[in-house]
């Protein structure tokens, strides 16, 4: 094999590797809270969707959120007691504030106040839900 041909082969191989690496990186960057929709999670008893009341808050901004609580079949769940906890597992710290459900808005919707994300990265919010279907903790993942 001529050295020019060998060089072309090596260059081709590197290009393929670069493309594979690029696609691999892209594939790894899954965003649960992106254009695909608001942060959401479904457990055995409940499906939870968390939406900012207005625009998505910036880092460090305290905004009200609306949590929608449904059975997995889509039936709205009213009258639930919901406690909120969470943090950043990768940083091993909890939430910077103590968010609470402050109002049952009806139709399975609840107002959440006091939620703040103090830095960018992946956050987990655990909702301890107690209602007629039973107790369950549903974890929502958010990328800020
Ligand atoms: Cu952190």
Largest sheet: 5 strands, antiparallel
CATH level-3 fold name of the largest domain? Immunoglobulin-like
Number of helices: 1
Distance between the termini: 53 Å
**Alpha carbon gyration radius:** 22 Å
Q: What ligand species are in this complex?
A: copper (II) ion
Query: Strand tally, please?
Result: 9
Q: Hey, roughly how much beta strand do the residues contain?
A: 35-45%
Shape summary: globular
The computed structural class is alpha+beta
CATH class descriptor name of the largest domain:
Mainly Beta
User: How many structural domains are formed by the residues?
Assistant: 2
Strand order of the largest sheet: 1-2-3-7-6
Spell out the helices and strands N to C: HEEEEEEEEE
Task: Provide the CATH superfamily of the largest domain.
Answer: Immunoglobulins
Mean pLDDT, as a whole number? 84
Q: Specify the CATH architecture of the largest domain.
A: Sandwich
Could you list the spans in which at least 5 consecutive residues all have pLDDT below 50? 16-34
Which percent range fits the helix content? Answer: 10-25%
Account of the 3D structure:
Residues 16-34 have low confidence and may be disordered. 18% of the residues lie in helices and 42% in strands. The protein is an alpha+beta fold. The N and C termini lie far apart (53 Å). The longest helix is centred in the first third of the chain and has 26 residues, at 3-28. It is built from one helix and nine strands; from the N terminus they run αβββββββββ. The protein has two domains: 1-30; 40-143, Immunoglobulins (Immunoglobulin-like), CATH 2.60.40.10. The relative contact order is 0.20. A hairpin with a 2-residue loop joins β6 (100-106) and β7. It is globular. The structure holds copper (II) ion (CU). Residues 88, 91, 93, 119, 121 line the site of copper (II) ion.
């Amino acid at each position: 094999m001529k050295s020019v041909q060998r060089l072309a082969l090596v260059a081709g191989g590197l290009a393929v590797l670069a493309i594979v690496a690029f696609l691999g990186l892209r594939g790894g960057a899954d965003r649960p809270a992106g254009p695909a929709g608001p942060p959401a999670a479904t457990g055995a008893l409940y499906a939870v969707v968390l939406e900012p009341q207005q625009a998505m808050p910036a880092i460090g901004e305290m905004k009200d959120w609306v949590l929608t609580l449904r059975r997995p079949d889509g039936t709205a769940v009213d009258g639930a007691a919901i406690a909120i906890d969470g943090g950043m597992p990768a940083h091993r710290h909890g939430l910077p504030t103590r968010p609470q459900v402050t109002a049952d808005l009806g139709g399975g919707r609840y107002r959440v106040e006091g939620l703040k994300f103090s830095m960018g990265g992946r956050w987990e919010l655990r909702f301890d839900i107690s209602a007629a279907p039973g107790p369950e903790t549903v974890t929502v993942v958010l990328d800020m």
